[in-house]
Amino acid sequence: MEAIINEMRAAVAPGQQDLDAAAVSRLRELTARLVAVRREEARTEYERFLSVIKRELCLPRDRLAERLDGAVVLVTGGTGCVGSTLITQLAAFRPARIVSVTRGVTRGWPRHPGAEYLYADVRDQARMEALIGEIRPDLIFHVASQRDPGQAETQVHHTVTTNVLGTRSVLGAAAAAGTGQVVCASTGKALRPFSPDVYTASKRVAEWVAFGFAASGALPVSAVRFTHVVDNSIIHQRLQDWAASSAVIRLHSPQIAFYVQSAVESAQLLMLAALDKGRARPGRLPIRAIADLGWPVSLLDLTLGVLAARDSGAPVYLSGYDPGYEEVPFPGLYDPATAGDLSPLLNAFEAAAAVPSECPMTNVFEAEFAAEPRAAGLSAELAAICGETDDPQRIRAALRELSWALLDATLAAAPPEALTRAARIASRHVATLTADHCQILRTIQKWGSESSNLAIGEAGR
After folding, report:
1. How far apart are CA 418 and CA 391, in angstroms?
2. In angstroms, rounded to a whole number, what is the distance separating the alpha carbons of residues 83 and 403?
3. Cys bridge to 173: 100, 129, 304, 314, which one at CB 3.0-4.6 A?
4. How far does CA 60 lie from the centroid of its chain?
C-alpha cells in the first residue's frame, strides 16, 4: 500500500486546484490498485464507521426524569441532526414543553409531533431576548452553530457571529429571563488552547464566553464537546457524492484518523450535562465528553470502503491540507501520564481539572480561565468589527488576537506541573514546530516559569 501511495504522490503533487485529464487518469488507475489491495480492510473500516450510529450512552433515567418531568425546555438548532435527535430523546421524559428555535434552513431531519418549532437567528440578540423572555424556559440546550471547518474559512463573518456572538446572545437572554441552566454544545477541537483555524478558534472563544457567564454567577452553564457525528458526517457525505459522480476525491493525507460518535450519544451527552446544574456554580464551567470513543477511523480506508461499496472508479488525490484543518496539533497537548485515562477530547491542562463523573462513560472537567484584561477588550473589538464589516481578513485578525489572549488566560490558570510537562514534551519537537506552535511553547514556558516563581515565593513566606 505504501508503494502505491508514494506513486500517487509522485504522479500528482499536492496543492493543485485543477487536474488535467492525464493526471486524473493516472490517479484513477492507482486508486483502483489501492482499492484492490485494501479491499477487505477498507470494507471492515467502513462497516465499523457506520456501526457507530447504533452506539448509546448509559443514562441515569430516574435522575433525568426528575430533572425534565414538567420542565420547559428550549433547543437552539432543533431541526439539525443532533438537535432533532435531542428533542426525540427529551420527549421520552415528559417535559411540559419543548421548543425548537432555528433559522429554519435545515432540511432532512425529522420533526417531533410534540415539539413546537419557532424561527429566529441566534445572532439576533433582540429577537432572542424577546423569545426567551416570553417562553421562560427552565433549561436551554444551545446546539445551533456553524459546524463545517472548511466553510468557516470562507464564511468567517457568519462563523464568528454565529459561534461567538450567537452564544453570547443566547446566554445573555437566558440570564435576563432567569433560565435555570444552559447547556452549550462545543467541539473536541476546542481542546486546542490556541488554533489559527476559524472554526476551532470560534468554538474555543465560545467556551470562554460561557465561562464568563458561569464565573459571574449570572447563569449556571455547562458544556459538552462533540467529535465527528457519524449520522451527519460531512466527510461521509462528500465521499458518497464524489463516488457517485466519479469526481476526484481530495484527501488531505493518507495518515489522517479521527474519532467518531453517534447523534444519539451526542444528544444523551447533552442530557447528562443537564444534571450538572449543582456542579455548574459560580466560577465553574463543567465540560463533559465521551470517555471511550473507540479506535479512530482511518480516513483512507473509509474512502476506499465507500469506493468499493459503490463500485466507483473515482480517483483519490492526496491534495495536502486546506485552510481550516491544522496539519499537526501542538505536540504538548497530550501528556502520556494522563492521556490514556481520559477522553481524547481533553488536553493535558484540562486533565488536571477532571472531577468524578456519575456516568462512567463520560469524563467531566471544570474549565477555568484566569482574568485577562486584554481578552475583554479584544472580545468587544471583535464584536464591533463584526458589526461594521464582513471583511474576512479583519475579522480573522481580531479573532486571532483574542485567541492569543485566551491562551494566556488558559495557561495562567493551569497547574504548574502540567505546564512543565507540556513544555518538556513540546521541546522535543522544537525543530519541526510551526511559528504558531513556537509561540505556544514560549507562552507555556513563560507561565510555567511564573508559576514556579510564585510557588517558590509562597513557600518562603
Report:
1. 38
2. 28
3. 129
4. 25
Question: Could you name the CATH architecture of 1-371?
Answer: 3-Layer(aba) Sandwich (3.40)
Cα–Cα separations (whole angstroms), residue 35 to 5, 31, 111, 237? 12, 6, 39, 19
Residues near 405 by Cβ (< 8 Å), separated by ≥ 6? 372, 374, 375, 378
Report the run of H or E that residue 251 belongs to, with start and end.
strand 249-251
Model confidence over 373-399: pLDDT tens digits?
Answer: 999 999 999 999 999 999 999 999 999
Query: What is this structure's pTM?
Result: 0.94
Q: CA-to-CA distance for 169 and 127, rounded, in angstroms?
A: 9
- How many H-runs (helices) and E-runs (strands) does the chain carry? 17, 15
The three grid cell numbers given for residue 29, joined into one nine-digit string: 488507475
- Read off the pLDDT of residues 111-160 as tens digits, 9 standing for 90 and up: 999 999 999 999 999 999 999 999 999 999 999 999 999 999 999 999 99
| Structure-derived torsion over alpha carbons of residues 353, 356, 358, 363, reported in degrees to the nearest 10 | 40
Per-domain residue ranges for the chain?
1-371, 372-459
CA-to-CA distance for 269 and 64, rounded, in angstroms? 12
